[in-house]
Amino acid sequence: SPKAEVTAATAAENSASERGGRSTQVAYLGVSDTHRPADEGLIASRPVAGRPVTGGSVTEDQIVEALRPVDDPELNMSMVELGMVKKVDIDGDNVTVQVALTVPGCPLRAEITERVTAALMPLEGVAHVGVDMTIMTDDERAAVRRRMEESRGATGTTPGKPLGHEEGRLNPFMSTSSPTRVLGISSGKGGVGKSSVAVNLAVALAGKGHEVGILDADVYGFSVPKMMGIDHDPVVIDDMVVPPVAHGVKVISIGFFVGDDQPVMWRGPMLHKALEQFLVDVYWGDLDYLLVDMPPGTGDVALSMAQYLPRSEVFVVTTPQPAAQRVAQRTAFMARKVNLPLRGVIENMSWFTGDDGKRYEIFGRGGGAELAESLSVPLLAQVPLVLALREGGDVGLPITVSDPYGETSSAFTAMAQAVEEMKPSRVFSPELQVS
Q: Is the pLDDT reported for residue 52 higher than 50?
């Protein structure tokens, strides 16, 4: 599969580069499986008794307890509970912590070092902190995978009902008890700005303190990784994919597993399988919102998402142009046929404000309001057309980050507020139903 090939290639490349040498700095010791003694203890399971050291007052158990609240930046789980803290060495007021990374070439090594250092430096008797990086064994990675599965299952998955093609692979978003609201950003029309809306709405929701993820379901025309500024591959732990995080939002996309210029030439069954993997093989954690950036149209991907995410709430994106509005509404008609609730209309590219301060409605007016009225749903927002919105998408800096108080960002903030105030839909269909 593309995932397996990319994962294997990435691991091989990282392993080869890591064997080239070892830095003399304590915080950046080389990474290899042979670096760690086979009989090394697991501090996370059983903190050792505190032993005051001559010349300092800190103890090993104090070090471990200070690290317990420190989360792995990708898994958002305690490094101590995950078994990443392997060893503590105290030499007077110098403390060295050995941290086991889940995979070679971890892209967040520097951030882990910063978090460990920040947690330990305030302790009395600590003047210097070093971080020694090593790599987990296969068994330790499997234990982390089990811990992730337990955490994911605790957030609400239908008990006793394996989902997906293999027994035991669970879709955490299927259960009626799941706390995650799934927002499908859809349109029957291409080129209306669904990805821009999905990215900036996600960042706006994250800015309000929510746990947010984006699933880029536009397999043929993926763009979310670039728009979010993510330039590294996801971490894969024992076949569980950990989505990269940017601007407070977790992201998964087929774009992480193929080259930027490589076309995805798949028929329906391959699309279906890939989308299933994005749900059951990705560690999303405890999300408040999962936004799904849908491709245009009402084909295979839309049908698969309706089957895998039957609790989705559909938001239709259109431009003011009547011709675009008529095509965009087709996704609304499909949503009703598969028993997915329509929650609102978002009008994008509503106007352009010139240097003279006047609004120019270059794509016409009224398309969003007309569509919302015909569907009996609210018009959630009208998003102005501004150059910074396009430029931000090209450089990975959403306008809600680069210009959080501007006219366009205010529209996304209002949109996020409207989504927050909506009660989650109670419509639930355990299986795809077409009426």
A: no
100 and 246 assigned to the same domain: no
The C-alpha angle 44, 287, 298, rounded to 5 degrees, equals 140
To which H or E segment does residue 128 belong?
Answer: strand 128-135
Answer yes or no: are the C-beta atoms of 363 and 321 closer than 8 Å.
yes
The pLDDT, as a whole number, for residue 177 is 76
**Mean of pLDDT over the chain:** 81
Domain extent for 365: 181-421
How does pLDDT run across 4-48, given as a tens digit for each residue? 444 444 444 444 444 333 332 222 222 233 333 333 333 333 333
Return the structure tokens found at 419: 């989504």
Give the integer Cα–Cα distance in Å for 339 and 97: 53
Whether residue 254 is found in the same domain as residue 306: yes
In this structure, the answer to whether residues 126 and 225 fall within a common structural domain is: no
Long-range contact pairs involving 42-46 (C-beta distance under 8 Å, separation at least 24): 42/83, 42/86, 43/80, 43/85, 43/86, 43/87, 43/88, 44/79, 44/80, 44/81, 44/82, 44/83, 44/84, 44/85, 45/83
Q: Which residues of 218-246 are buried (b: 16+ CB within 10 A; e: fewer)?
A: bbeebbbbbbbbbeebbbbbbebbbbbbb
CATH code, domain carrying 221:
3.40.50.300
DSSP assigned state of 78: B
pLDDT band at 426 (very low <50, low <70, confident <90, very high): low
State the pLDDT at residue 433. 52
How far apart CA 97 and CA 317 sit, in angstroms, is 50
